[in-house]
Design a protein that fits this description.
Number of helices: 2
Largest sheet: none
Order of helices and strands: HH
């Protein structure tokens, strides 16, 4: 059974012969009543403090759970960003390889085309050289023929003179 300070303060005792001094009993009961009152106030204050602390603790635990979830989310996002960057790098590398292959293929085609053109130009040069030699040879024969004709015609010209 709980006793309140008021009950202590209002407690009445039976008077007996050779009993305690009623004044001392009342003084002591007043003192006990005030101490009880103070202890009850402190107890209530501490209960309120405990309630506030438990509320803060619950909030902190909630915040901790949110922070953990945020960290997990950040980890997932980091992994997703890394994976996205890896895929993008692979795509860029593949595109670069494709461009390099196209450039190489184009260069090889140009080499083949230039080789064909060079071969054609060599054949054309050889043909032109043969034609020039033929023309030169034809002119040389004409000159020789003309010189021979001039030598043959010279005695007849001298005789006419």
């Amino acid at each position: 059974m709980k006793i309140t300070p008021l009950e202590v303060d209002q407690q009445q005792f039976q008077r007996v012969f050779r009993g305690c001094d009623p004044e001392q009993v009342h003084t002591f009961l007043d003192l006990v009543s005030r101490e009880m009152e103070e202890m009850i106030r402190e107890n209530n204050h501490f209960k309120e403090e405990i309630r506030k602390r438990e509320q803060q603790l619950a909030e902190f635990r909630g915040n901790e759970a949110q922070l953990r979830e945020a960290l997990v989310q950040a980890g997932r996002m980091t992994d997703e960003i890394k994976e996205s960057a890896r895929k993008e790098a692979e795509l860029i590398r593949a595109e670069a390889e494709l461009r390099a292959d196209k450039i190489l293929s184009h260069a090889q085609e140009q080499v083949v085309r230039l080789a064909d053109e060079t071969q054609g130009l060599r054949r054309q040069k050889a043909r032109l050289m043969a034609e020039v030699r033929g023309i030169i040879e034809g002119h040389r024969r004409l000159i020789e023929t003309q010189e021979e004709m001039d030598r043959e015609a010279e005695p007849a010209r001298e005789a006419r003179r």
